[in-house]
Amino acid sequence: MRATLMYGAGDVRVETVPNPTIQEPTDAVVRIVAGCICGSDLWPYASRPESAEGARMGHEFVGVVEEIGSDVTGVAVGDFVIAPFVASDGTCDFCREGLQTSCRHGAHWGGRNDGGQGEFARVPQASGTLVVVPPGFDEKLIPSLLSLSDVMCTGYHAAKKAGIKPGQSVTVIGDGAVGLSAVLSARLMGASRIILMGRHEARTDLGREFGATDVVAERGAEGIAKVRELTNGDGTHAVLEAVGLKPAIEMAIGVVRDGGVISRVGAPQFSDVPLGFPEFLRNITLTGGVAPARAYIEELLPLVLDGSIDPGKVFDRTIGLDDVPAGYQAMAGREALKVLVRP
Amino acid sequence: MRATLMYGAGDVRVETVPNPTIQEPTDAVVRIVAGCICGSDLWPYASRPESAEGARMGHEFVGVVEEIGSDVTGVAVGDFVIAPFVASDGTCDFCREGLQTSCRHGAHWGGRNDGGQGEFARVPQASGTLVVVPPGFDEKLIPSLLSLSDVMCTGYHAAKKAGIKPGQSVTVIGDGAVGLSAVLSARLMGASRIILMGRHEARTDLGREFGATDVVAERGAEGIAKVRELTNGDGTHAVLEAVGLKPAIEMAIGVVRDGGVISRVGAPQFSDVPLGFPEFLRNITLTGGVAPARAYIEELLPLVLDGSIDPGKVFDRTIGLDDVPAGYQAMAGREALKVLVRP
After folding, report:
1. Closest CA to A106 of A340, A290, A301, A299
2. Which residue in A275, A285, A292 is closest to B273 by CB distance?
């Protein structure tokens, strides 16, 4: 089959690799109908050291089950399935608590495993990992179904962990696909004021469509001042941080109300969070982390199927597998917000 | 009247100062029946620069109302009252939300204001700040009533913000008065396993009396390994951090279970918390901060009055006002856990 490999920064290739097969009785093999490129793929695309052995890429996909191992239950050949971005057994204590990213038998896509930017993938722990979509849905929903693999659930994780209550005010930092999904999630949870911090107009326009009531293009101290101006000097009850850079978390601390919550889902490109003294005096909570997408798919799937939400709008370009290298370039150059791949 | 002033590190003096008077119609004047020295007083005692003007000391006291301003309601002359360690109006949005430490008209004891280590204190925002103790209580309860000014409520804040559920496991870092109060609070909230990290046997013995099921004397990597050993390698659902030094917060990160909560109430003597990458992958929540003691006094007072809890046991020495300098010395030298002052 054909699949995407990364050999170093800026060096993405589509190559022929062995077709996946069932290796464990808990495995399934899925034919990928749609995959995509993630904002987090841009970190290695910017900085990965060159290596002779390429890493398989992609961790988001939907597809059709081709084959299942003898222990797989709840998933049948021919099912259309959503694969969250981490595999999980669905039975351990962490999975039962909804923290599938810490599953005791979890696995990740890519690297030496199959990735989502290819034709097929072996899915470990298929019974726990895959979510079956009831048949008969409109093909047009595929982008939104795919968004449940990662970005929509990641935005939702930010909002859930922030514990947003109806009527509260929320700042979302970042107008990427996750930030926009966080806006949509904050709206779902009843936030009355949603301030989106971002400066790419096409993206912030989609943010307004998703529920943002205000857009702040300024950054740093200016951005903080602007959000405070919009909130009587107090900042917002919740801040959903969807960037992962130090200036973003600093901005989050600047715009959160005393007693409020910073929920971060942007993978941090730094090691320390400036939340010692004097921020201690403000009783700020820092929460979030890598999103257990699996925990939210069953909750969000009905909203996608009945058209209540359309998170697939974050995809603004669709390409074939051979164009994946160009897709990385387009996302890195901010020409595309999020690129969908139809193998 | 006589009151305590600090002129620099190690330089505590008891001097004659003007008696407080009503300055605002919302003020009260309280005759202090019992005050105390706080672990947090030891930070300036260790490092405060010398100055010609001394700072008034103490932020915990109980006493009898001597005089009230014309706007004070709910508090009458002769009432026995508990003063939480921050004054608050009780009516602003932050106070109504239970975050009295962020009160829009709040005030702090000490510095140029009266402190709790003296004979009298002017209490700003008396209606919101003071909690009246119903008359007829046993004098022996005074230490426990005094503990509601700060340490017991601070330990309780840690436990409340951690959201401890019955049956969960908790690590408490620090065997000072706040750490021991956190142990008692974790027990009140139904924790089934309470691991106290501390190495002063008299204190950890009191910790066991308060509800600790295990004591770990080791620190750093060894301490982390020990707690993990006690919890099947996972760490505990909640960690209550009552020290405020960087190694303590690092230990907290080491002993918290994935998806767990670090609730810190030790005033941080550092600016950065190492919760960037890779801790992001573990979905750890950091919460807590300076405790809004006022929010918890009414909840804990009945438990003190009916003898369900006896948090006053953290006081292991009682002195008069003239002995306050020696009291600081005893606490700094760890001869005393917490010193009660009867002016």
Report:
1. A290
2. A275
